[in-house]
Amino acid sequence: MLIIRKSDYETLRKHGEETYPYECCGALLGTLKGADRCVVQVVRCDNTRDDRPQDRYHIDPKELIAIQRQATQQGLEIVGFYHSHPDHPAQWSQTDLAEAHWIGCSYVITQVEKGSANRTNSFVLVGESEDDKHFQNEEISVAAVEEDQPLCH
Amino acid sequence: MSLKVNIPTPLRRYTEGNGMIEVSGSSVASALDSLLQQYPVLKKQLYTEDGRLRSFVNVYLNDEDIRYLQKVDTVVKSGDTISIVPSIAGGLSSV
């Protein structure tokens, strides 16, 4: 399960509306609690695919290193990523799977329909290696918890 | 030469949960060899069967992509940090 504050959930959905008709992308920082990923912070990233941002996204590895450093300093780790699908369902595509390499992390996809965030789904990348990796549907638990209150116990 | 390798979340299950590993070496290649000596199971995750770094595995020396330096032959010095960063990308169609 992906556990996320309502405010963070809205942040990542709103990001997709802001970049429409282009794809947005970002990272989810948090902690791993057994099989759950607990999101503590949403980090917006730039989509570097200037050639076709309407149906592709890519995060600069240098930006990821900075995010990873920031996470470590805060005692967190990267637990997932998000991106949007402008005018397409919130389902992973073959391209998403082929380009997904963070096994054990969540991949959150928001469908943005005519500029408005519609459905948001999450998928965990599971498997032992590149050879058998696959996406598994993941429930999203949106918690109405204030910023200063603990999200996961 | 003592330096550190930053391990990303998905590979930490192969390093007993450690996110920062101390290694030795005089080049990126020898530092990565030192990493694999400690955690041999990482090899399959980082390299293809013919011994090349997998295309989606980005390796940075401090803040520089080694592809734009001397690749794995890049010289390292004490206190450097090597970061392994699997790429993050995707898109909604396969065309």
Question: Layout of SSEs?
Answer:
The complex is a heterodimer of chains A (153) and B (95).
Chain A: E1 2-5, H1 6-19, E2 25-33, E3 36-45, E4 56-59, H2 61-73, E5 77-86, H3 94-98, E6 106-113, E7 116-126, E8 134-138, E9 140-143
Parallel strand pairs in A: 1-3, 1-9, 5-6
Antiparallel strand pairs in A: 2-3, 2-5, 6-7, 7-8
Chain B: E1 2-6, E2 20-24, H1 28-38, H2 43-46, E3 57-61, E4 64-65, E5 81-86, E6 88-91
Parallel strand pairs in B: 1-5
Antiparallel strand pairs in B: 1-2, 3-4, 3-5
What does this 3D model show about the protein?
The complex is a heterodimer of chains A (153) and B (95). Chain A contains three helices and nine strands; from the N terminus they run βαβββαβαββββ. With 153 residues, chain A is of the alpha/beta class. Chain A has a single domain, classed as 3-Layer(aba) Sandwich (Cytidine Deaminase, domain 2), CATH 3.40.140.10. Chain A has an eight-stranded mixed sheet with strand order 8-7-6-5-2-3-1-9. Chain A is globular, with a radius of gyration of 15 Å. Chain A starts with a strand and ends in a 10-residue tail after the last strand. The mean pLDDT of chain A is 95. Chain B has 95 residues and is an alpha+beta fold. Chain B has a single domain, classed as Beta-grasp domain (Ubiquitin-like (UB roll), Roll), CATH 3.10.20.30. Chain B is built from two helices and six strands; from the N terminus they run ββααββββ. Chain B has helices spanning 28-38, 43-46; strands at residues 2-6, 20-24, 57-61, 64-65, 81-86, 88-91. Chain B is globular and about 45 Å long. The model of chain B has no long low-confidence stretch (mean pLDDT 94). Chains A and B meet through strand 4, helix 2, strand 5 and helix 3 of A and strand 5 and strand 6 of B.
